């Protein structure tokens, strides 16, 4: 499997390297001009550098029915997907959840059931807000490992990946360069800010980049909200529920709205785009993941709006079950792309710097 | 759809679907005309040879968009004279050059995006504006603009006959979806390219060797419209027997190989023919100035094939090839691998090596590192082939375009011996022979197409309004 997708991507990469018309779209094409021959690790690096903007596909004079049959975004998507599954740990889960929306739904339902079971068996010792339904200690006992274990799994994966693509020791300037690129999602802007070719075929549109960043910043705000709650709880002994003018709410409410709106938008765009320009076999898993991520925001907002009503236990079950499923699936779902992408952007900064340094030497 | 095409009387029918056709259609549509484009290719192959282009040569008096410095009319014209050796219609050429400066902002306003010079083409950063994503991206942008303007496009629609009655076009016949349709139009623009993809025509014009030529561009430029107009007495320009050919990778597809099949290794090579003999100075000049003559050189060799041989010292000095080269540890083995007489090739290389002299090799400029006492000499970059592994590339002539075309006036109007055809214009490759009588200047085909496409669209719209 891995041999085939890499060989096909290498075939296409070599054609692109002899053409180079697409140099202005993204980082992939300038990166491939560094090589004349491509090792497996080079191909994996290029594949993870590709953000699937599809500009190269719609501009390509060699797409099928031409005998070269180029579909570079799809070839790289296959390699990228395979690299995430190959480096995932434990590996058998990866392919299942990446591919299958149904499997993701099963985990989600299991999450609901677990929370429901806890609500019914572990009665709280009289906390307030939703701690009235599930004690703070029980929540920590469940969510701390559900958060840390997946992160540990991702760390193991990234270590293997970093070795494969030839990453070096980390330097601030590379991290900064990668951060700048990720913060603006530079590789999805078509090279000139006109955007990518996704939901409108060969017409450019910047919607996907805006919606993706809506999700990204919404997610970061939600994460900051949760972190600030943790700090308030432990460092200042201020316990939930928090009022609207508190850090957790001021960060979390806009974050939840951005996350919900962004994911809904991305899911809609995905129904409009040509699936054959990505890794077709994971379409269902990707869609389920986007909806799951959006649901973490939407159910959180719903829970907040329902505070003090009889709907809280049901909404709490749904929200916590959703968040639990999201965390547990983190290493085995599309969510993992964020880690690989950032690592790749850092490695790309290193590789560019290495070329500059080599040229600067007399 | 197809019934609708023949039911209407169109203001303007544009025949062809590449750059010139689209510029004409957009210009005419913006002037208020109802326009139909007949593109003979299916949608996936629309755009003719414009799909394969990558830049636009543009006059400019100061920095303009992605172009640096300035490039004046006289310098541009001198560059043209150098390649055409004077075979050009000076007023038309100067019109194209002068108009090119206005074209670039017009192109941007109609969706074309430019980017700074591609890597390896810095020498063109002053004269040529590169399309972001290449010519197919330009073609897509124009089709989208045309669609937004309400232009109708019929794909798989081949014009079979333009009905001329005296000095007017009355209607056209076109084969669309296997049926012949009669299409009524008040004016027509011919922008359907040359005839290089009609191999029979090419063979009649050039001789039997043409059967071994590869066609670098679209298989849809069969010259049907050109033939039809010439048969009806329209005036022609350009040498009917000639085509522009460059030496490309011999393993390229018969059609549509495009840019990736080029090989830039010749200046660093020993080039031999089928019999293992050298036949021309591989180091005569820098490759951008010489690649065009190698098409003819190879075409003149037995079986129209050549073999470029290099050693490990030179493999990284030129753009990567789309197909990997043959590779062997000895010259003899390499020759055998490529179907040559290995011993003969080894002898040729040995004689070449013996004629090389010590000196400083400089890959990017004329280094005067020449052979001594060898015929033909290699006058630059002559280093012995002595470092294995050795690499070999097969070369074949790759036809870019043909020179025969329709003669037009400075308003792009088509003429017969009796005078202008009142409602017929031509633009692009089908009339480029007026200006490019010989040779080729990078990015100038797109200039001719854009300038005369816009003129044709403007004139046709003025005629029907």
What does this structure look like?
The complex is a heterodimer of chains A (362) and B (465). Chain A is mainly α and 362 residues long. Chain A has one domain. Chain A has helices spanning 2-19, 28-32, 40-49, 55-59, 72-87, 91-99, 101-121, 136-164, 172-184, 207-235, 247-272, 283-305, 312-329, 337-360. In chain A, helix 1 runs antiparallel to helix 5, helix 8 (136-164) packs parallel to helix 13 and helix 12 packs antiparallel against helix 13 (312-329). The two termini of chain A are 44 Å apart. Chain B is of the alpha/beta class. Chain B has 2 domains: 2-236 and 405-464, 3-Layer(bba) Sandwich (FAD/NAD(P)-binding domain), CATH 3.50.50.60; 246-398, Succinate dehydrogenase/fumarate reductase flavoprotein, catalytic domain (Flavocytochrome C3, Chain A, domain 1), CATH 3.90.700. In chain B, 29% of the residues lie in helices and 22% in strands. Chain B has helices at residues 2-7, 19-30, 73-84, 90-109, 135-149, 199-206, 224-231, 287-290, 293-299, 331-337, 342-355, 444-464; strands at 9-15, 35-38, 55-57, 114-115, 128-131, 152-154, 157-165, 168-176, 179-190, 214-215, 236-237, 243-249, 270-273, 306-311, 326-328, 390-402, 405-406, 413-416, 419-426. In chain B, the strands form 4 sheets. In chain B, strands 1, 2, 6, 7, 8, 9, 18 and 19 form an 8-stranded mixed beta sheet that branches. In chain B, helix 2 (19-30) links the parallel strand 1 (9-15) and strand 2 (35-38). Chain B is elongated, with a radius of gyration of 24 Å. The mean pLDDT of chain B is 95.
């Amino acid at each position: 499997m891995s041999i085939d997708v890499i060989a096909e991507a290498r075939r296409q990469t070599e054609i692109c390297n002899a053409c180079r018309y697409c140099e202005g779209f993204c980082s992939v094409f300038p990166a491939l001009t560094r090589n004349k021959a491509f090792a497996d690790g080079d191909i994996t690096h290029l594949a993870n550098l590709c953000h699937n903007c599809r500009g190269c596909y719609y501009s390509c004079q060699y797409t099928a029915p031409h005998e070269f049959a180029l579909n570079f975004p799809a070839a790289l998507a296959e390699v990228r997907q395979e690299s995430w599954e190959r480096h995932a740990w434990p590996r058998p889960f990866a392919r299942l959840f990446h591919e299958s929306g149904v499997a993701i739904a099963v985990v989600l339902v299991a999450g609901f059931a677990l929370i429901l079971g806890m609500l019914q068996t572990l009665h709280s010792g009289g906390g307030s807000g939703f701690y009235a339904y599930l004690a703070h200690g029980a929540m920590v006992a469940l969510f701390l490992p559900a958060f840390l274990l997946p992160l540990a799994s991702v760390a193991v994966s990234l270590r293997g990946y970093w070795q494969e693509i030839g990453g070096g020791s980390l330097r601030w300037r590379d991290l900064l360069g990668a951060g700048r690129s990720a913060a603006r999602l530079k590789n999805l802007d078509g090279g000139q800010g006109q955007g990518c070719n996704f939901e409108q075929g060969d017409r450019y549109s910047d919607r996907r980049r805006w919606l993706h960043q809506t999700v990204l910043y919404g997610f970061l705000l939600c994460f900051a909200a949760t972190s600030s709650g943790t700090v308030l709880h432990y460092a200042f002994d201020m316990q939930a529920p928090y009022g609207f003018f508190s850090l957790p709410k001021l960060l979390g409410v806009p974050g939840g709205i951005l996350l919900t709106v962004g994911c809904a938008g991305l899911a809609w765009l995905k129904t409009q785009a040509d699936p054959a320009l990505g890794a077709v076999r994971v379409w269902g898993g990707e869609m389920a993941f986007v909806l799951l991520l959006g649901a973490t925001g939407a159910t959180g907002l719903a829970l907040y709006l329902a505070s003090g009503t009889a709907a809280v236990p049901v909404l709490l079950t749904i929200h916590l079950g959703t968040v639990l499923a999201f965390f547990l699936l983190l290493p085995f779902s599309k969510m993992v792309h964020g880690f690989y992408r950032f690592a790749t952007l850092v490695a790309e900064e290193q590789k560019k710097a290495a070329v500059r340094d080599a040229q600067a030497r007399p | 759809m197809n019934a609708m095409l023949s039911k209407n009387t169109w203001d303007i029918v544009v025949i062809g679907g590449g750059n010139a056709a689209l510029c004409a259609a957009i210009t005419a549509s913006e002037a208020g005309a109802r326009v139909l484009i007949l593109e003979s290719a299916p949608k996936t192959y629309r755009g003719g040879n414009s799909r394969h282009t990558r830049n636009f040569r543009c006059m400019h008096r100061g920095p303009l968009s992605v172009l640096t410095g300035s490039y004046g009319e006289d310098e541009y014209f001198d560059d043209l004279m150098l390649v055409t050796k004077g075979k050009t219609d000076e007023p038309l050429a100067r019109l194209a050059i002068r108009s090119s400066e206005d074209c670039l902002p017009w192109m941007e306003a109609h969706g074309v995006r430019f980017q700074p010079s591609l890597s390896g083409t810095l020498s063109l950063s002053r004269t040529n504006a590169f399309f972001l994503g290449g010519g197919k991206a330009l073609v897509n942008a124009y089709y989208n603009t045309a669609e937004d303007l309400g232009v109708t496009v019929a794909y798989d629609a081949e014009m079979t006959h333009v009905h001329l009655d005296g000095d007017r076009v009355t209607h056209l016949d076109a084969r669309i979806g296997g049926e012949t349709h009669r299409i009524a139009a008040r004016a027509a623009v011919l922008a359907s390219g040359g005839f290089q993809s009609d191999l029979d025509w090419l063979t009649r014009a050039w001789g039997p060797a043409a059967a071994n030529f590869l066609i670098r561009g679209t298989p849809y430029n069969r010259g049907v419209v050109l033939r039809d107009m010439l048969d009806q007495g329209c005036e022609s320009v350009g040498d009917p027997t000639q085509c522009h050919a460059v030496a490309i990778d011999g393993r390229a597809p018969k059609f549509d190989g495009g840019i990736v099949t080029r090989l830039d290794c010749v200046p660093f090579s020993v080039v031999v023919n089928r019999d293992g003999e050298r036949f021309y100075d591989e180091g005569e000049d820098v490759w951008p100035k010489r690649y065009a003559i190698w098409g003819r050189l190879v075409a003149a060799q037995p079986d129209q094939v050549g073999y470029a041989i290099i050693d490990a010292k030179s493999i990284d000095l030129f753009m990567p090839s789309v197909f990997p080269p043959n590779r062997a540890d000895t010259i003899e083995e390499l020759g055998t691998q490529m179907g040559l007489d290995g011993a003969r090739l080894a002898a040729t290389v040995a004689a070449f090596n013996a004629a090389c002299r010590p000196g400083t090799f400089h890959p990017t400029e004329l280094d005067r590192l020449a052979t001594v006492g060898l015929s033909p000499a290699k006058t630059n970059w002559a280093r012995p082939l002595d470092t294995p592994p050795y690499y070999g590339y097969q070369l074949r002539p790759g036809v870019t375009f043909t020179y025969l075309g329709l003669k037009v006036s400075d308003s792009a109007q088509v003429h017969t011996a009796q005078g202008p055809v009142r409602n017929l214009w031509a633009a692009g490759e089908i009339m480029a022979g007026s200006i490019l009588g010989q040779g080729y200047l990078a990015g100038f085909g797109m200039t001719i197409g854009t300038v005369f496409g816009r003129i044709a669209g403007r004139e046709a719209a003025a005629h029907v309004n």
